[in-house]
Amino acid sequence: MSSPISFRAAAAGLSLALALGACQSNSKPDAARQGVPEPDASGLPAGLKPGTWRGVLTAQGQEIPFLFDVSTADNGQKPTVTLRNGEERLKLDETTTAGDSTTIRLGVFDAALVVRAVGEDGLKGTWVKYDGKEPYRVPFAAFRTPNNDNLFVGDSKMVPIYGDLVKGATFRVEFKGDDGETYPAVGLIQQDSANDHMLTGTFLTTTGDYRYLAGNIVNKKDGEHLLLSTFDGSHGFLFDGKVSKPGNINSITGDFYSGKSGHETWTAVLDGNAKLPDANTLTGMKPGQKKLAFKFPNIYEGGSISPIDPKYQGKVVVLQILGSWCPNCMDETNFLAPWYEKNKGRGVEIIGLGYERTPDQTLASQKLIKMKERMNVGYDLAVAGVASKDSASKSLPQLAGVLAFPTTIFLDKKGEVRKVHTGFSGPGTGKYYQQEIAEFNKTVDMLLKE
After folding, report:
1. Does residue 406 have a cis bond before it (omega within 30 degrees)?
2. Domain at 296-449, CATH from 3.40.30.10, 3.10.20.90, 3.30.360.10, 1.20.1300.10
3. pLDDT in tens, 367-408
4. Residues in domain Thioredoxin (predicted)?
5. ∠ CA(8), CA(10), CA(15), 5° rounding?
6. DSSP E strands, 193-298
């Protein structure tokens, strides 16, 4: 990527920026891997021992910590690495060894942790993303730890229990990029008073959410800081917010660090009524347009997909604009894949339009096929273009524009666009996720009854 955080101007007179956490990509894809070698699958992994590990990515002078577990399979040799982000568990079961280095592939993402053993209980290496415009490497280290929850370490002074956070607090948030662009968000943060004051939460934006965040409150020299982080294989995030007054979370100001170079500042004000603009109003069809006209290559060689194909005639069709590189898209796919299996007999189809970080159709197809197989996706997938909002907008010219990955488009039985939904509130958002699912089902049910 040209930068880990990209911005966009939103519709309806709102000035909204689009961050990577919401899965927007404006990079210029490169078919080559720019000198980053592919993992060499030889032998069994070395250096990984069963137990809980505290991993740390070092970027922009900051430490981005996360927890992961290592367990062995039945043969007692091949390990499974499980990333832990709050309640989320992401299992990684592709590990290979070459010499003294072990490569841990990061799920569906074109990325890996390449590590080697340091002493008895340590690892050192690099987080590598293979699909960027340039080689993307971030230093990584990890140590086995008996402490399963304390991500961040401050001084020895006990931090307070915040009553509002224990109940679950909602914040009105504004993020501001280094270029001065701003966008709104809603912060959801909860403190567990019985578990080392551990924090969990997320930030919702108009284009998606920052998924499962975890951390704790620590004391620094300048006061109390609320710290949250996550690592899902595609993104490494750190939110560092200073509490305005000790014991008072009414106002928080801080920094948001995204991977190798992304940076924004943020302010949060306690506000139980904070909300975002309606995701169904941010974009839509251009004046006079009712249908989408496209024909994209199927992920399998030789085929193509168009909404006018006989398979989709007379059916409700859901279009999913996605990328295999996008965690928010994977959240939506985790919902849509089993939903489709339960509902396809009702006269509804789903088409996934994939925008990948390579202009090479073969490579793009391979990435989407891997996603399809790992996530048990039974609906059709097409290679629609490269991973940028401009590419997506140009490929669907009847739309007023594509503002986010994912974007979900609902077609009625006549093939006419009835709703365009920007972004997706994933399971890390709690009740907002339930509302997202309820709205999806309500829309499909309505269109099926027509």
Report:
1. yes
2. 3.40.30.10
3. 999 999 999 999 999 999 999 999 999 999 999 999 999 999
4. 285-442
5. 90
6. 198-205, 208-209, 213-220, 223-231, 236-245, 248-258, 262-270, 296-297
- Say which CATH topology domain 20-26+156-270 has: Lipocalin (2.40.128)
> Contact 381/367 with Cβ under 8 angstroms?
no
Helix (H) or strand (E) holding 142: strand 136-144
Closest to 64 measured CA to CA, from 203, 213, 197:
213
The DSSP secondary structure of 387-400, one letter per residue, reads SSHHHHHHHSTTBS
Exposed/middle/buried for residue 168 (C-beta within 10 Å: 0-12, 13-18, 19+): middle
What is the C-alpha separation between 139 and 154, in angstroms, rounded? Answer: 22
Q: Quick one: tokens of 168?
A: 């679950």
What is the pLDDT at residue 21?
45
d(CA 321, CA 329): 8
Is the pLDDT at 196 greater than 80? The verdict is no
- Tell me the angle at which helices 431-449 and 327-343 cross, rounded to the nearest 10 degrees: 40
Average pLDDT of the residues in 3-7: 37
Between the two ends of the chain, the Cα-to-Cα distance in Å is 44
Residues 6+ apart with CB under 8 A from 51: 69, 70, 144
Q: Which CATH superfamily is domain 51-144 in?
A: Quinohemoprotein amine dehydrogenase alpha subunit, domain 2 (2.40.128.120)
